[in-house]
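Data deposition worksheet. Section B asks for the primary sequence of the deposited chain exactly as it was used as input, without tags or linkers unless they were present during the calculation. Section C holds the resulting structure in token form. Section D is free text for depositor observations; keep each observation to a single sentence. Incomplete worksheets are returned to the depositor.
Section A, Depositor: J.P.
Section B:
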Amino acid sequence: MKMRIYLTVFFAFVFSMMLLAQPEPHIGCHHFSKKDIPVPGFQLAPSGIVDTRSDSIDILNYKIDIDITVPSFLSANTVVSASALVDNIDEIVLDLLMLQVDSVFVDGVPTTFIYDDFKCSIALPEIMMTGDDFDVQVYYQGNPVRDPSNFGGLVFEQGYIYNLGIGIASNPHNFGRGWFPCFDNFMERSTYEYIVTHSSAYNAHCVGTEIDIINNGDGSITTTYAMDQPITTYQSSIAASNYVELWSEHEGMEGTIPVKLICKPGDSTAMKSSFGNLG
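Section C:
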């Protein structure tokens, strides 16, 4: 499928939400806890403690392969591509909030890990020196939790699946950890790949460029996106519903830019009117 780069605008989606409410073998350690409702106290570190992981390891890319076909449940694996910034790196600690971690691989080799519902400490099979690149693949699943304020997290409700990358009541406020393992701070910026398997009744949208859409023939569709501009974890986004797409063009300084607006079918007229007021 020919790649098409366009601007995807999620404002209409957020606006409509405000109107409504306001594989490979898995081996290794297992840890499970049930998460049906928002819980208080998502504190990754005491107030005032600085996250220094980005001083020693650079996260280059996240490849998030996620299945959201089951209501209120995700099954995923994320490949975290990283590079050592200093010598003698023997582990990597990733944030992941209250999901079940099934197995972890480093450069395709199974490794040990310790997971406490907040952080996953992963042993590297070899000591990494400055400039060494490595891939960490984490298999995980479960019912994603929401920020205690109900603003933040991967949400399944009212015919929508979407994430809010900021947790109002959490520390730090980044909330990428609610659906993928990451360095969940405001400093780290990485590129992203998204492989989203969802109901064929829905279409899925992420930040970046739509790469491919495959009908799996079993009532599901797999949609692939790539974000080649480095962004933070809270800017990493996914949304799926029975959206309609409205296309237009913007004449920019460097040429014509295709613009795609997405919304629920019943909101298309109001969205056209609202965006028509933009200069």
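Section D:
Confidence is low (pLDDT under 50) at residues 1-41.
The CA atoms of residues 131 and 224 lie 29 Å apart.
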